[in-house]
Amino acid sequence: MINDKENVFIVRCGETALKGQNKPWFERMIVSRIKKVLSGFDGVTVERADGLIFVRSPLSNDRAEVLKRAGRVFGVDSISPATEINISGMTADEVINEVGKAAVDFMNGIIAERGVKTFKAEAKRGDKMFPLESPQIAREIGARVLKGCRVLKVDVHDPDVALHVNIRRGFAYVYDKKLSGFGGLPLGTNGRGMLLLSGGIDSPVAGFMMSHRGMYIDAVHFHSYPYTSERAFEKVKELAGILSVYCGGIHIHSINLLPIQEKIVQNCPEDETTILVRRFMMRIAEQIAKKEDCMMLITGESLGQVASQTAEALVVTDSVVSMPVMRPLIAMDKTEIMRIAREIGTYEKSIEPYEDCCTVFLPKHPVTKPKLEKILRSESALDVEALVAAAVESDEVTIISPQDDL
Ligand code: ATP
Ligand code: MG
């Protein structure tokens, strides 16, 4: 997919461009993140220049992998593999000749690769001191390509290839592809959140979405060992591993909820089991979040998806915590959530059939419109504080380091 002519990757930062005075800071965050995800490669340089980021990698590296990793850094809007031409000290005529030659080479490469027949040339003059204006540059380079690549014809409306030429101070660039990144904001620009991570489809997507807005993520996972298996927890760790590619390292706090579930089953109405368990989950998650300097809780809930996610149930669940609860999937359909899960690579792992603590004591007819007063009455049969404290005390931490092999 990347040929030897494409000796540089031009990275464009999306929304970061809107950040006014903070723009350099956001860009520097993106640069340092790109450097981090490419630290395993030799000789890579990452450089910021006039609103763009240039990634240069020796041809000996697996540059498809370099491209893939840089492309999933949050804040990256798009990337173009390009030919870079050093034009410093050249006259305008020399520049046009050199860039023209490079464009012919570049297009010949594409013709051999993809058998294209039509093209149009588009130019941008990043260096406003350059004497030719953009349309003139496009015309000059287009004419040279037509001459140098006999099989090509110009089609300005629906070309097989749009050849882009960008003349900047000291360097010129020729490229055709613009590969989309995830956009968003660079990791580390928006605090830290505690994700309630199950083994399902939704919660990994929720974590991804918050991280996509610059938030570092830690996770809490509830299990009901021995009703839930070691293997079920392995699956959660693997999901966190996939997320870490985007979100950086993740600490998973695992909590055995079984003692609390047993107390609820023994002392409270059966149809309220799920909502009562969820209130405990939120309380415990909040305590751990505070300890870990997380500012928010994050769940994969979506309005109306199941009994515990009706509007009434969410209000009753939320009322036990004071920390804001982020639900990035709240208004999304399952099909859309599944699409994102596939895109980020968590879907196949999520659908592996392992038990979840929520399914261990599933009531036959869960309440869908719980009343807070009634729930509070049921909870008064429990020593809530002591149960939460014991659960928090039993926290076991697993550190997931960023793994870069999807
Ligand atoms: P998911 O696909 O993420 O499992 P779901 O559609 O199965 O979500 P629920 O099981 O009702 O929905 O869970 C709603 C949310 O509660 C999850 O997205 C997650 O944030 C949290 N949650 C559920 N089970 C657990 C668990 N075992 N540990 C941690 N959080 C959980
Ligand atoms: Mg679930």
Would you mind describing this structure in some detail?
The protein has 406 residues and is an alpha/beta fold. 39% of the residues lie in helices and 20% in strands. The protein has two domains: 6-180, VC0802-like, CATH 3.30.2130; 192-400, HUPs (Rossmann fold, 3-Layer(aba) Sandwich). It is built from 13 helices and 15 strands. The strands form two sheets. Strands 1, 2, 3, 4, 5, 6, 7, 8 and 9 form a nine-stranded mixed sheet that branches. Helix 4 links the parallel strand 5 (118-125) and strand 6 (153-154). The two termini are 18 Å apart. Magnesium ion binds at residues 198, 200, 356, 358.
What would a concise description of this structure say?
The protein contains 13 helices and 15 strands. With 406 residues, the protein is an alpha/beta fold.
How are the secondary structure elements laid out?
Layout: E1 8-13, H1 23-37, E2 45-49, E3 52-56, H2 63-71, E4 76-86, H3 92-114, E5 118-125, H4 134-148, E6 153-154, E7 161-167, E8 171-175, E9 179-180, E10 192-196, H5 202-211, E11 216-223, H6 230-247, E12 250-256, H7 258-267, H8 273-291, E13 296-298, H9 311-318, E14 325-326, H10 334-344, H11 347-350, H12 372-379, H13 384-393, E15 396-400
Parallel strand pairs: 5-6, 5-7, 10-11, 10-13, 11-12, 13-14
Antiparallel strand pairs: 1-3, 1-4, 2-3, 4-8, 4-9, 7-8, 12-15
Helix pairs in contact: 3-4, 5-6, 5-10, 7-8, 8-9, 8-13
Bound molecules: adenosine-5'-triphosphate and magnesium ion.
